[in-house]
Amino acid sequence: MKEFHLKALRCPSCRRSLRLSEVHLDGDEIESGKVVCEKRHSWLVDEGIPALVYPRASAKDETWIKQYDSMAENYDDLLKSYDEWLGIDMMKERERLGNYVTIEGPSKIADVSMGTGANFAALYGRFRQEMGRFDFHGLDMSHGMLRIARRKFKDLGITVGLVQGNVFNLPYQDDYFNLVIHSGGINTFSDKSRALEEMLRVVKPWGIVVVTDEGLSPDVRRTDRGKEILKTNSLFGSRPPLEHVPPMARHLEVAYVMGGTFYQMVFSK
């Protein structure tokens, strides 16, 4: 995390801006310390990651967080096994997120529930000559996943503001991002409506929200391949949570990506 990343953040308790306090730096990277707001709410920074979780996760969500923490070190290998199992190239598929990036000029992008950072790694693969115009921010409830993402971004030379935060109360400013991405997670969220409302809140007017998760297309469901996928992992039986999309969302579109094995909802503000 670098100091300029604070511009995107707000206190998750009172929604005021945050500033640094008692920080330890490694070059221009903030390694540890605190961030505080005008009302003196204080939040720890550990391994360059501010802990801005408020309120605490529900029991249901906490179960999933612990599961992701436990699998963090092997998560990327698990995702690679999806390629063979589903017959796709997931990283190439993720590069298509670049279709929603502004053609030129500065672009602020948030990846909400980012896991180990595969989406930003894919965007780097597509836009590596243009990295200077991007302002990347990544949030997850799992500190273990964020730790792996941080390591990955250092290896790639990508600058990303990482935050441990609650998807139902994003610690970001209103109307800040050009693009908000969410991949793989909403199927298990305890409050899908609230999560989608928060994603729409932090995107700029006319900005875009892209939500992707397991869910077979109607055509694939009818095939022998689809039936086998559902037998192995019931999450692929999930359907796009259209009833939870905020009423003020514009231009809602639904498509099926990754060989018809994931749904994708796209809408704007």
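The above is record 1. Record 2 follows with the same two-line structure.
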Amino acid sequence: MTFQITTLYAVLLAVLALVLSVMVSIHRGKTGVSLGSGGDTALQIKMRRFGNFEENVPLALILLALAEAAGAGATWLHASGAILLVSRLVHPFGLDPARPAAPARIAGSLGTKLAMLIAIVAILAREFAG
């Protein structure tokens, strides 16, 4: 079985992961901070942008792949994948220590959870609906 839809979103999200990772690396190079944030707030924000991505996206992609393997329809899969992609694009702009409830942060977080929930429902509907 090929996972054409999951692969599409995994590739797009991998590009975003690379961008977030490179942003951390560039900042580390500029500041000479090898481990941790060294008290540099800008570096800490970049680290959390990448870290939050890495904490959430793998499980979301696993759920998307399981939904695709279970035979979920393309509409459900694209809904989950597109919401996840947009949410992860928006979320980094909301990570601001001065505004812990920034709209982009909330939208990114809720969208990521919604993408996972769509995949979960699609899996349950296919696997246990009868």
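The chain has a mean pLDDT of 94.
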